[in-house]
Specification:
Distance between the termini of chain A: 16 Å
CATH class of one domain in chain A: Alpha Beta
Structural class of chain A: alpha+beta
Strand order of the largest sheet of chain A: 15-12-14-13-17-18-16
Number of helices of chain A: 17
Radius of gyration of chain A: 22 Å
Oligomer: homodimer
Chain lengths: 467, 467
């Protein structure tokens, strides 16, 4: 991933656009290198390709103005939320204008009776949940980072709660989108379901800014459960942990979170978050429901784990114990990076049918060992989704080549097992190479849609589809 | 709806295609009027527009052959499952070839460990559930009719269980689709979630055969709950019933079914199914879970209903009592048609945010009364979705005009309340007129997608998008 395709820059068009934006937006426009680099890619080994300028938009109309100006001059548009995406989504390989949506941060409506809300794209998930707290509702999608809702929609994010509450594809009811020709359109309605034509909402969710700029999102919310309990459960092997997951889900236990940490990952979180867990494959679990329901779920889970030689689980019903545990889970990235001071981590994810999970994780661990890499594994195993955080010395070119080759094999392995090259990170620049193997002839349908909606290819070029 | 746009027929192309298909398919091809009329629209007042010929396909390759032949000759292709759609989806306004998929009825794989299965498009939902029974799994989407899985995917069907288990958009993991140029492509994988590019699966689900022919479907399955209990609960008013629904859902009760019947609908099912219920607005409910969980859910529901002056609920835990109740619910259509012997029924559906449900149902009842119509209402109220079965004397032109005008107002009312002109029936021919009001500028995106994927407009022309 050291080499990313460079697209052709339209110098003349970019010059016109920069000058016009400076006039229109004043100090809400910047072409300073530091600002531009903050809006290029910063979170992985993919090199930073900064845009030519950054606009801090505050309204749908402003976004439309910028897009129309860019469209008229053949200049790329790159939507930007919080910059926490992992596959080079916000890079500007052909230059262009980054539209920073972080100042579109208003919660436009919360409707407790409908269990929904409408927010601007720059609202982050944590702030939304802080605002919702008094209503007894919450927004369950939790990718770890405090990402913007717009960015989460654009990458079809999910995270630890997805096994119960679904992903952004399930959470989004409706969108406001600025199209590549600068029209402001609404997709979907607040009705819970509809059969009224093509599902444009689901098409835009996960389109990574390549079909338009998502500016407002209407989200499904959920009632905060009466009771929440969670815990950790050690296992003798990856297989035993995975069998427990499969059986738990087959038994219809509505488990809210079920996360697998391999032994190395447990070692990393022990060191980073001072947890003192046994350094063996471990499931972090959480149950939501009524008091009686949660007690029943925990009991059944414990029995299933015991059947596979796991447990006993240590459950925590107190909010602060639970928070500490899940904070440790969320800090797994930093814990892993901390394993080798000075090295950098590359986070990659794949997702396979759950029956293939143990085989895929085990083969991946063997590959890691054979490659001489250090790479803890953590997974949203209820969905068959797992992450590998591959560490490498940034100065060691050979090691980085080994990492690239390992990531390639990981993706091919997941696809060969009937899975996908990314469960939740998205394609960006980093996963483009794997789409032909995964989608085959369907990739041509994606290209046809891209050409139809963005005929001048100005929307986030070089992402998802090869140029 | 007496007048449906007639598209231009391509007589020369049709002649060539009919001759070739007769040669290729022998007795699996028919141009007999009776067969053609069975494959035109039969289930509502929309007039029957039969295709020119019907092919009974048995493989993906045969479907691809037919589509390629039709594409080469500019002849329409109309996919056909069981013909139970309600808005003219299978009509052939420009003639063409109906591809009957009912003989593609193989269940290709059931994978209990992954809670999924893959079926050919012609498998019906009842047969799938019969086959699954021994595995402890079931397929929850239940639109009433014993529709084909392909047809259910094509219309984004849902039904009584959707409040808990979602709609076909949630149930479908992956598809095999024959594209308008006769390529066989696969969308999606068996992974539970993916961020690997545009969500073609969700684009095809609900596209009503206008973007390709769905030939195989991979579906999510669910474990048969340990305990199922259901019952009926009477209410003094529509408002009281709707408030009970809203509160039940806000409380996080994972109710599996919650159906509203208005007083007239109860009267109809009493007469048809000999139920003896009080003829007042009534909720039919069903709870799934563990024994303790279901008992708890019923108790909480009963308390909520009492708060709004409803109840007491009469619960049935015995399978046969429950079956009788839900059979009566499913027979609501026939029960309603039976209210006036000799008249015909038109079933239409809309869906609104749940907070608007009581207002929408009440305004609709007032409209029915003011229009002098007979039209019972039944709804999947957990989703804000309701159906009106409007009765009319087929020989009375004025009455049928009144029905059309009423249906128009119903759709406009739902859209004005933030809802959709169809929650689950689909657009077909009958709802095309309402899409501009519902989708505004987004309709142009749908047209762009249609042009991109089906440039020669051969796939089910005259459906969803106006010609």
């Amino acid at each position: 991933m050291g080499t990313v395709t460079r697209l052709v820059r339209n110098e003349t068009g970019i010059g016109v656009v920069l000058e016009t934006l400076a006039d229109l937006f004043g100090d809400r426009f910047s072409s300073a290198l530091s600002v531009r680099e903050q809006h290029g890619h910063t979170t992985t080994r993919i090199e930073n390709q900064p845009p030519d300028g950054v606009v801090f938009a505050t309204t749908n109309e402003e976004v439309a103005t910028v897009v129309r100006l860019c469209a008229a001059n053949g200049v790329p548009v790159i939507p930007f939320g919080t910059g926490t995406s992992l596959e080079g989504h916000v890079n500007a390989p052909a230059g262009g204008i980054s539209i920073d949506l972080s100042r579109m941060d208003r919660i436009l409506a919360v409707r407790p009776e409908d269990l929904d809300c409408t927010v601007q794209a720059g609202v982050t998930r944590k702030r939304l949940n802080e605002t919702l707290r008094d209503t007894g509702l919450f927004f369950p999608i939790d990718p770890g980072a405090d990402a913007s809702i717009g960015g989460m929609a654009a990458t079809r994010a999910s995270g630890t709660n997805a096994v119960r509450y679904g992903t952004m594809k399930d959470a989004v009811l409706a969108l406001t989108v600025v199209t590549p020709d600068g029209e402001i359109v609404r997709t979907g309605t607040r009705a819970r379901k509809s059969s009224a034509g093509y599902d444009l909402t689901r098409l835009m969710v996960g389109s990574e800014g390549t079909l338009g700029v998502i500016t407002e999102i209407t989200l499904r919310l959920h009632g905060i459960p009466e009771e929440i309990a969670g815990g950790v459960c050690p296992f003798p092997s990856i297989e035993a942990a995975c069998e427990t997951v499969i059986t738990t889900i087959q038994a219809g236990i509505p488990i809210a979170r079920i996360e697998l940490l391999d032994a190395l990952q447990v070692k990393a979180v022990n060191a980073y978050s001072k947890l003192g867990l046994a350094e063996t494959p471990t499931l972090f679990v959480e149950f939501h429901g009524t008091k009686a329901g949660v007690a029943e779920q925990m009991e059944i889970f414990d029995a299933i784990a015991a059947d596979f030689g796991g447990g006993p689980a240590a459950f925590a019903t107190k909010a602060e114990e639970r928070t500490r545990l899940w904070q440790a889970r969320h800090d797994a990235y930093w814990a892993s990076v901390g394993l080798v001071p000075g090295w950098k981590g590359t986070s990659t994810d794949v997702c396979v049918p759950i029956s293939q999970l143990a085989a895929c994780v085990t083969a991946t661990q063997e590959d890691i060992a054979a490659s001489g890499l250090i790479a803890p594994i953590v997974g949203h195993v209820g969905d068959g989704n797992f992450h590998v955080l591959v560490l490498a010395d940034p100065a060691d070119a050979a090691m980085n080549e080994t990492v690239d080759a390992f990531i390639g094999r990981l993706n091919e392995r997941a696809i060969a097992m009937g899975g996908t090259c990314t469960g939740e990170h998205g394609v960006g620049q980093g996963k483009i190479a794997y789409l032909p193997a995964e989608h085959g002839g369907a990739l041509e349908l994606m290209r046809a849609i891209k050409r139809a909606i963005d005929p001048h290819a100005i929307m986030n070029p070089g992402k998802i589809l090869a140029p």
